[in-house]
Amino acid sequence: MEAVRQPSDLPFFEKQRFSLKRIGPALATPPCILLGLLVWQVVLGHPRWKHSLSNGDVIGWTIFLWAIFLRLITARLVTEARDGQLVISLRGFWRSRRIPFSEIRSAEKISYDPVRDYGGYGIRTGRFGKAYIAAGTRGVRIKLANGAIVVVGSQRPEELAGLLSSHSGAR
Known about the structure:
The chain has helices at residues 24-43, 55-73, 114-118, 157-167, and strands at residues 12-17, 76-82, 85-91, 96-100, 104-111, 122-126, 129-133, 138-144, 149-153. The chain is an alpha+beta fold. A hairpin with a 4-residue loop joins strand 8 (138-144) and strand 9.
């Protein structure tokens, strides 16, 4: 039986939470409003409008919006260097990108403004290439063999850039 690799066994492993300072209240508003409607209509028995949603609809929509909200606030950007490749995953969602070390031509530590340069956080495409950003203003710019540029946000950009430079295909 093959042993399961732990994050400490990997040359590089970083898990970042998305900053919810600005967007958290906006994400929480719809489920909270529906929760209030649920209490008012279903628990207390007061229909909100003449043509209100049925109790089943209110319960269903409330559960649905809370599930979406919880999925969004638990998403994580995970960056791993393993098995000869850089793996960038948006955990909590389906997105994952694998970049073989042989495709990397250069890697350098950079500073950026996520909002100005890429339009925010998450998986973004901007004038400086594709970016995977969870928090902060530091990261690594990776130039690939096909000319594409990928930016990976990191709280440890020096370590990641050093690792990628030492394993890149441009030796």
